[in-house]
Amino acid sequence: MTNIVPYQQESGSKKEQVARMFNSISGRYDFLNHFLSMGIDRGWRRKAIELLRPLKPRHILDVATGTGDFAVQAMALNPEKIVGVDISEGMLDVGKKKVLAKGLDKVVSLQYGDSENLPFADGSFDAITVGFGVRNFEDLRRGLQEMYRVLKPGGKAVILEFSRPRSFPFKQVYNFYFSFILPRIGKMVSKDDSAYTYLPKSVEAFPDGEDFLHILQDVGFKQNQCRSLTFGVSSIYTGTK
User: Fold this and answer.
1) Is 92 in a helix, a strand, or coil?
2) H or E element that contains 186
3) Which of 27, 156, 202, 221 has the fewest CB atoms within 10 Å, i.e. the most exposed one?
4) d(Cα 84, Cα 62) in Å, to the nearest integer?
5) Distance CA 215, CA 145 (A)
């Protein structure tokens, strides 16, 4: 996977730049996320969460939790505890206010955490969710290995990530929107010149579909599957320990 960074002309590791980028846009992130996806992102997360229902997970880890949307929606599973981790303090601040406002703070806990060095013991969680986050890992395999480590045997990871539509004419419409319309709106609203040009570039560089399933298998996950959503705009990947 090519290591695309948000600020091409600036120094710093991908991890540092991604944290800086999300800190920069955290105040407008939720609005832009729902607006630019026309609200479809909520349905994508709902479908991903439903794949965990048969498992009845009691302890869930949400990696790259951002403002906590996935963690909040995962309350539909009625777990005992959901822990969300992220490297952006700005996004976490927004998420903590959201969790408190919804009265979910007894179950949902958001904290700083690096996906490549998760601060949890082996086998701590029944399930792991990631929403549009693995694409931002500096070391993709390392992050997935950490997720595998903290899962209990029999636990499941559900990963929601952008992918690239392949069929005509949706591929062409999508590419135009993603490469030209979305960055302009994102820049105008977020006031960050790079955040929404980084997005399409990072999606283009991400090893989606079968390529990502092979990586999950290499890391140790079993029963790996990919479910395409909305003409291939995003995909749900699942793997079991």
Assistant:
1) helix
2) helix 182-190
3) 27
4) 4
5) 10
Helix (H) or strand (E) segment spanning residue 189? helix 182-190
d(CA 18, CA 24): 10
Query: Which amino acid type is present at position 130?
Result: V
Q: Which two tokens stand for residue 178?
A: 């993603």
Cα(162)–Cα(131) distance, integer angstroms: 9
Structure tokens at 25: 């846009």
Residue-range domain boundaries for the chain: 14-240
47-73 exposure pattern, b = at least 16 Cβ within 10 A, e = fewer: ebbebbeebebebbbbbbbbbbbbbbb
Q: Express each pLDDT in 113-123 by its tens digit.
A: 999 999 999 99
24 alpha carbon, distance to own chain's centre: 18
- Paired tokens of 26: 């955290």
Residue range 53-82, pLDDT digits in tens: 999 999 999 999 999 999 999 999 999 999
Domain 14-240 has CATH 3.40.50.720: no
